[in-house]
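Hey, weird one. I pasted the COI1 F-box domain-containing protein sequence into the form twice and got a warning about non-standard characters only the second time. First submission, copied straight from the form history:
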Amino acid sequence: MAGTSSYVHFHDIPDVVLAIIFSLVADTRTRNVMSLVCLKWHLLERSTRKSLTLRGNIRNLFLLPTCFRAVTHLDLSLLSPWGHPLLDSSSNPLLLAQLLRHAFPSVVSLVVYIRNPSTLHLLAPQWPNLRHVKLIRWHQRLPTEPLGSDFTALFEYSSMLSSLDVSFFHSWTEDLLPAIKAYPLIAASLSHLNILKHSSAEGFKSYELLAITASCPNLRKLLATCIFDHRFIGFVGDQTLLALASNCPCLSLLHLVDATSLSNIRPDPNDEGYTSEDASISHTTLGDVFAGLPLLEELVLDVCYNVRDTWPALELLNSRCPRLKALKLGQFHGICRGINARLDGIALCRGLESLSIKNSADLTDKALEAISLGCPRLSKFEVLGCKKITGKGMWELTHALRKTLVHVKISFCKNFNAVSSLQAMEPIRDRIERLHIDCVWNTLDNSKNQTRSSSSQELSESYNLQARKRDMIKEEKRLKKKSKSHFHDVGDENLFSSRTWSKLHHLSLWIGVGELLTPLSLAGLDDCPALEEIEIKIEGDSRNQQRPCMDSLGLRSLACYPRLLRMLLDCSGVIGYALTAPPGQADLSLWERFFLNGIEILNLKELNYWPAQDMDLNQRSLFLPAAALLAQCGSLRKLFIHGTTNEHFMMFLLRIPTLRDVQVREDYYPAPENDTITEMRVESCRRFEDALNSSNRHIPD
């Protein structure tokens, strides 16, 4: 522009505008990098930081930052030593609580690990303006404490409390109700209550749930674990649902799941999909419940017991809950009949953007087609344990929703293996962002697994892993060359063409213990240039398996993803022998070598690892082979071990030159109350953290 000076510096931007720009940056590492540019940017970044997760050892008070005065959301649950009483490390716990308030005076949202009630008695008075609180505890509740004692201090000092999350806080179901009744004003002000019980298999009884909702009439979000089995006293049925809708008519989110649903037990693929018992829930009652919740935007009903012929009630959702955007149904049958291409049941909910269907025994391809036509806004779709749908029906659905669908999950479905699942994603291959499939490589029956080309059939038949022995790597190369030749021969008609998954950034996989990950790239997932995060869940009883015939699970095959930075490797579903195994079988240390072998060649920056478990000993430990393999990951910056380990195994990790953040978390129930002589103790954590943060270690960045 004429007359405008060309010497315009970034610092010429007004401070108010610059502060707004800084406040829009959410990534923590990016903000830290910005703060290193100059002193002005450093001060501006610190003054605009609103959320902070505090790490480090609580005993190092001289490292407590005092420059984040504007932080409103503070997470204290990950302080070291993890899981120990937060303030017990100080000779003057009240002074420590006051120091935290002085460093973060603006906190209104708090996340904290509560080992015993004394922690909240000291922390809650420091921030009287708390509005949101999330409590975490994986250790067992002290049986000597009176009912409600965990919540008394919080309700007494937090008069502005509006949101309470105890989904990862182990307590008895009888604990919450006495505290709510003792503080009726707090109960009336609550708008968000999360009482899911991830830490135990207990569920709230119907009379407990109704008493809680009657005391909290202004709830807008309610998440709870219940009992839907009519054989138990206090089960949730028609009357409970109607009363709940009457108690809290302003709900925008209702999330009710049966206690057995959180166990994530893989269903039997050979059953018909129906449970032996029906839930005491009728479609007439469901219609009345929907009518009583007109503001509903998200609904989850994972009942785990048959709810039959639900399509008449689901047809009412569109008119009675016009704001509904997300819906998840578990063990609901007859949700959509799909007869003669007529839209019925759930297919009439045109406003849905997220739909999850779990264990619907009579869901068919015709129903999927009706859903794809009746719900054109779907961006997220999940099917779990649906036995009658096939790859053809999923292909038709993804084709019809190719302009909106970006998140898909296919799991526990009898007629799907990895190959057919990826075939069904072909219409949205260039658009999908998040995907979950099961790594099941066996060939399906031809009458059920309908393929669209002869080459894909040949590729699927080559995935019989039971025939793989020591020459797996050579065989893989041969199959890869063969598959490429098939692709060129078939041309554009081949479903596994060379086109890339250009927007896929998150991949989630389920795989059975003893199976291999190596065929994944051959199945069509070989070109994912944007893939940054992968989540692998391994499940099964290794006690029923012979020693692994291969040297590794196949993590080295993931090296074909150039941008892969984060991995969640969850082996907690693997059961085995922590100590000496019987002859002919492998203990967990050998299985860990099998799982982790090859991880060192990946350019990972962050790893979350859940070790396998010995249920008889309640032990999830990192063994020597795993520690040695992890120590070879030369690019790791963050490593979180969700279990226990020995101190000298942890010292192996100091060989990783870029390692900056490490923590051992026993975040499973019940977390060990007393560390044994061989496991990480408070002093063990201190020595390791001192060595990790030593000035002798030079971190490149």
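That's the output from the first submission. The warning seems to come from a hidden character in my clipboard, not from the data itself. The two ends are 41 Å apart (CA to CA).
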